[in-house]
Structures are given as C-alpha cells and as structure tokens.
Amino acid sequence: MLIYERFTNEGGNEQMIYLISIYTSNALGIAAILTAMFCNMAIMKNSRTDYRIIKLICVLSLISCFTDPLVFTLDGHGSRLFRSINMVGNSYLFLANIWVSVLWICFLRAHLWGVNPLKDRRIRWILYPSAVLSAVIVLNFFYPVVFSTSSQNVYGRLPFSYVFVILTAVFFAYSIYLSHVYKKENGSRRFFPIAVYLVPVSIGFGTQMLFYGISVSWPSVAIASCGIMMSLQNEMAYVDYLTGLLNRSYLFTARPYKSMKGLIMMDINSFKAINDQIGHEIGDRALQEIGAVLHDVACAYGFAIRYGGDEFLLFSADGSERELNEIRGRIDAELKLLNEKPGRRYQLSLSYGMTSFSAEQEDIDDIIRRVDQKMYENKKLFYLQHERRAKDIR
Q1: 214 confidence band (pLDDT: 50, 70, 90)
Q2: Distance (Å, rounded) from C-alpha 383 to C-alpha 360?
Q3: Helix 49-74 crosses helix 217-238 at what angle (to 10 degrees)?
Q4: What is the reported pLDDT for 78?
Q5: Average pLDDT, stretch 324-353?
Q6: What's the rounded Cα separation, in Å, for the pair 327 and 10?
Q7: Cα atoms in the Cβ-side hemisphere of radius 13 Å centred on 157
Q8: Which of 185, 195, 361, 378 is deepest in the core (most CB within 10 A)?
Q9: Cα–Cα distances in Å, from 29 out to 64, 189, 251?
C-alpha cells in the first residue's frame, strides 16, 4: 500500500513533520555531494573522461536534491505558477533518473575500458530508449501519461511512470554485466566495486517507488557518489598513473602479498638506452607496454606492481617453481609478439629474479632483497650475452 498517496494542506503538524523529513534527507544529500566534491579537488579538476562523467552525475544529483523537496512543497498549492513549477520539476526528476543511469553506464565504460562513450557502440543501444522516454516526458506536458497534476496541483503517478523504473533497473543490470565482463577479461578492479554505487541507489529508489512521500532517492545517489569519489581517490593513491599497475605504496600499505607464495622481480633491459637514444616519451611508452603485458598475465596468477622506475613485481598465489617459470614464459611470449610488430624502433626484454616465500615467516623486505639479487645475476648474464644491446634499438 502506498503511503501519502496525495499531499494536501490538511493535518498541520503531520504536514510539518512530513516536509521537515524531506528537507532533512535532501539537505544531507546536498551536504554529502558538496563534501565529496570539495574533498576530491584532484578529481574535480581532472579532465579525464571518466572524471568528467562522475562530475556531471554529481551536478545532476545536486540539482535533484534541490528539486525534490521543492515539488513536494508545492504539491497541493493550486496557483498556476506553482503548478507550472511542479510540472517542470517532476519532469526534470524523471529525466534525471534516466540520464544519470545512462551516465553511470558511460562512466563504467570510460573508467574500466578507457573508451570514449561518444564513440562506443555499447552505449548506443541505451541511448535510443532514453531518448524515447525523454520525448515522452515532453509529450507529458500536453498528454499526461507519466504523471499528472490536478487543477489543485496534486501530483499523481500514471502507469507509464513504471516504464522509467523498469528501464533504470535494466541499466543497472547491464552495469553488473559489464563489471562481470571486465572481471573475466582483466581481473578484479580492486578500488571500484560497483556495489558502492548500485546498493544505495537501488535501496533509495526502490523505497521511494514503493512509499510515495519518502524522499530518499536522490540522497541515496549522493551517498553513492561519495562512494565513487572515495574509490577513485584510492585508485589515484594506489595505482600507478603511467602503467595502470598497483604501486609501491599499495604494496606496503595494504600488504596484499600476505596471501601470495611466489614473487618475480623484473627489470627492463637497456631501458636507459631507450630513454637516451630515442627519448623519454618513447621510454614512457615502453613502460606502458610492459605494464599492459604484466597486467594481462598477472590476472590469472595474482597481481603486478610497478615497484619503481623500470622495476616491476609480480606476485603469484601458487608460488611453485613450475608456475613461476610458466609466468615467465608467458611474459616472454607476449614480449616476443610485441617486438615482432612492424615499424618498432626498440626491442623489449626483461631480466628476472624468482623465488617462493612464506609471508608468515619472512619479512617482505628480505623477500624483495633476495629476489632482487637473483634478478641482478640474471641481468649480468644478459649483458654478457648482449655486449652491444644498443644495436637492437633501430
């Protein structure tokens, strides 16, 4: 049964409590969004596509947190001006509901895959129904099918309003599918569990849909936006910007190696020659290529770290000699394919140090020193066999 199916000017104290609860929840939503925006200025000032999308979600949510209590307040006040504001405000809320969901999908595609949503084929199919429903909202001003406002300016939902709810649910389900696809292709995204967004939003919109008069939908989006901002902030702190791998700070702060049993340390051979003879921009590209290879290989075994400069770590959950050699073989095979691409001006290879370890019995610094010594011995052997590595740079 719906609560407060209609709002009237009767019941003074009840009305006051009713409005205060709406103002309070949306005020908290506004405070949450503003706090998240001001405390994450590095994200707010960044021009990356995914960051711009989340900023737009925050702005739309902020406007909605102002609009929602406004239309509740004007509901039942019968002047022509108030009725016009009520129509415009509720129309905006329906549109914001759909387009924030679209932006959420765009954000996932931009953030997880790095694609431009405007050129993304997967985004196009969700734009068509969103555009149709936007047109329906415009039509609703003349032929009410989504919601209506009576001559006394009393708001009422119409059956077609549930199409918006269904489409939003479909978009949310699609975002779960996208997350599953990404995890299958690339491994987990440590700092961005989509539940941070979906759980509060689903609870908020579901509650408001069932119990009209409880204004919690947009405050829930505000909470979700805060969660996204915190996740992005963690990524900025613990993910290497150049290679996309986890960084040294994450290694020693979160100590993810506790569940691992094997470690490979790698160093790019003749990296200084690449920087000196071709340029640091090409050197950065080489680091990105190594990062991409290590990320792809590590997904099946553990995780990879950019330890510093051109040194990398790859942790293995198994840690057996067989698995460590298998990982090394896969990395070398990927680099071989990379080096065979036409037009390359440099060749990439790695020196390796490998060891098994027990995180419970050994200190991580001792483990890294041991594997670093093995890598150094492997690098000495490499340079004995390649006295003039510079000739590989062409």
Answers
A1: confident
A2: 36
A3: 160
A4: 79
A5: 94
A6: 73
A7: 18
A8: 378
A9: 10, 27, 35
CA distance to 22, 103, 159, 233, per residue, from 214 (Å): 7, 25, 19, 32
> How does pLDDT run across 55-79, given as a tens digit for each residue?
999 999 999 999 999 998 898 887 8
Geometric angle at alpha carbon 45, from 89 and 228, rounded to 5°: 65
Q: What's the average model confidence in pLDDT over 369-381?
A: 94
Q: Sort 376 into a burial class: Cβ within 10 Å, 0-12 / 13-18 / 19+.
A: middle
Residue 239 is classified by DSSP as B
Q: Cβ–Cβ contacts within 10 Å for residue 85, how many? A: 18
C-alpha dist (Å) from residue 340 to 254, 329, 337, 347, 388: 38, 17, 5, 9, 20
How do beta strands 350-356 and 262-268 pair? antiparallel
Q: What share of the chain has pLDDT > 90, as a percent? A: 61
Q: What is the three-class DSSP state of 112?
A: helix
Domains of the chain: 12-238 (1.20.1070.10), 246-392 (3.30.70.270)
Q: Residue 357 phi/psi, 5° resolution?
A: -155, 165
